[in-house]
Design goal:
The structure is a homodimer of 296-residue chains.
Chain A lengths: L4 H19 L8 H11 L6 H14 L6 H19 L9 E2 L2 E2 L1 H5 L1 H20 L5 H14 L6 H11 L6 H26 L4 H28 L2 H4 L5 H4 L5 H5 L1 H18 L8 H12 L3
Antiparallel strand pairs in A: 1-2
């Protein structure tokens, strides 16, 4: 592939950051504490992978990254950030550190952290309602994204399965269900929503959906492996935590070597779904390849 | 007014309950705990006032209650319920009882209560994306509602102002800002969104917005007065709590008698905004009148 993937990711992340900067009220806007908290967690060094995937999926359909898609990317990142803030709360994972910085409730207190997560979800849907695309596409994108962050095979559902499974021996079915829902669904819908923004047909949507489903699972397997093999400093969070709390992870069921083979095979299958687009899918494929080969 | 207001409210609430029953996954749907928790709080005896206001606002514009508006009502009620679940959490108001029943975190634990609130917000936007009205109206409704439950003069912003003001002496400006945002914004947008669903013009929207703003403030003043004058059994929640925690309330600033006069004057002003609709607004006006005259 001829695409310089680091440039693609860097430029997509910059575009997303500028959109987030414009879309989240400043910390000087009343009431201050909530806007400070929203910004603390949104600008905590996230890689903006979901926005970049949405942009490259859109480029696969439209031939180039369409104008205005950075707001879709920003909304996806707000939803991702909201889920991290609530996951880190004392009543859930009780994490003090995220990407090497104090988590939202450590910095702002539990009440404001709960409300900052709530508000990031709300703001995401408000931003989606303002997307510069035909109203029918906007409505479709909102419906798909809400479904992907919901309880039935969506992000919250995966979080609940994860909580319910702690301390139990993980089965292959359970691990796949958690991964598909907890992190997979938002990645998958990032790809699909990017396509819809760019005018994807139903056939395009089906292909992007296959790609997003398989690539999303591959990314999560790689995450699980990294959690077991990389130390905390490199990872920017507490390493080995999944094992310590008996979380249902892919390597816990299949071992590290098989997990690495599974991730590679899933990426190949994901790429096959994009064959009809030829070189127009190079950007999307290179980002996915980069994500499964990363070392932290 | 010739409209039997109790019948109007009862029928609107029944319509809303049937929609909520169909739209929230059953407690047997995996993962069970979250759906059980969402249902526990959604079906806890709420009066469905926001849906009823949306329906009667729509009838003011369209001449009768339009088909499909019960899903808009259900979404409004999901948002209201999500805010109650999160308000009741130990880190916020720490309430064990709501409408005479255990609050969500008491019944299901704190983690599931946080996620149930999250999921009700998500499901509300998913339901709105599926409304049976033109896509441009749907997009407008979603944008208005997201704004009304957000941080800038919206529901979450009011909640944060309320938290930040505890223990401080309430000023008239602060009390009005909290009321306008915390409870007023969702009531106001219920009226406006009902109108948009029914095809309201910009002029209609402006009138309904004035009505909703004034009536919403009047309802909240009545709530504050009832909190000080009615005992817990009648109220279904812990009475006098606002005073005990030095919450910024209307009677705390103006006294009970002035508060009652203010509520009555606001309702008169709200009605004036509906004058152009003549008897078509009777349903909406009768519901508002009922709400300021209620005794619990």
């Amino acid at each position: 592939m001829s695409v310089d993937v680091k440039t693609l990711i860097h430029e997509g992340a910059e575009l997303t950051d500028r959109a987030l900067e414009a879309l989240i009220p400043s910390a000087e806007t009343v009431p201050n504490s909530i806007h400070g908290a929203m910004r603390h967690s949104t600008f905590a060094g996230g890689k903006r992978l979901r926005p970049v995937l949405a942009m490259q999926a859109a480029a696969t359909i439209a031939g180039s990254v369409p104008r205005g898609i950075e707001n879709l990317g920003a909304a996806l990142e707000m939803l991702h950030t909201y889920s991290l803030i609530h996951d880190d709360l004392p009543a859930l994972d009780n994490d003090d550190l995220r990407r090497g910085k104090p988590t939202c409730h450590v910095a702002f207190g539990e009440a404001i952290a709960i409300l900052a997560g709530d508000a990031l979800q709300t703001r995401a849907f408000e931003v989606l309602a303002g997307l510069e695309c035909p109203p029918a596409s906007t409505v479709k994108i909102i419906g798909l994204i809400a479904n992907a962050v919901g309880t039935v095979d969506g992000m919250i559902g995966g979080q609940v399965l994860d909580i319910e499974s702690e301390g139990k021996k993980p089965t292959p079915e359970l691990v796949e269900a958690i991964h598909r829902a907890k992190t997979g669904a938002l990645i998958r819908v990032s790809v699909v929503a990017g396509g819809v923004f760019a005018g994807a047909t139903d056939e395009d949507v089906a292909r992007l959906d296959t790609f997003g489903r398989k690539a999303g699972l591959a990314f999560q397997i790689v995450d699980d492996v990294l959690d077991m093999t990389v130390d905390s400093a490199q990872l920017g969070k507490t390493a080995g935590k999944d094992l310590a709390t008996e979380k249902a992870t892919w390597p816990a069921v299949y071992g590290i070597e098989q997990s690495e083979r599974d991730a590679a095979a899933l990426i190949e299958e994901a790429f096959a779904a994009l064959a009809p687009y030829g070189s127009r899918a190079d950007g999307l494929k290179s980002v996915a390849q980069y994500l499964v080969e990363r070392k932290n």
